[in-house]
Amino acid sequence: MNKEYNFKSVEDLLEHINRGCEVGFLYKGKEYFMGMPTKKVDYKFFIGECCNDNSDGEYMTAEEMLEYSFGDRKLKDIVNDMEVIERSF
Fold it and tell me: How many domains does the chain have?
């Protein structure tokens, strides 16, 4: 794990996601993935727990994706708590 992959702020995360960055991260012992779809679909951004199709969130903007829920917290609230394990750039 490279701590330099972690995002410094919500704005840092949004900047990377809006440029097409794909991100794999851990939060509370579970692995998640977010990014842009590689095929033509009705949404522009997605996030979800790996290997759990019931957890998928689909959004038209990265800003909307910040509302993705991790139980009682939202993506925008956990940026400093997630452990980024991979990101495309």
Answer: 1
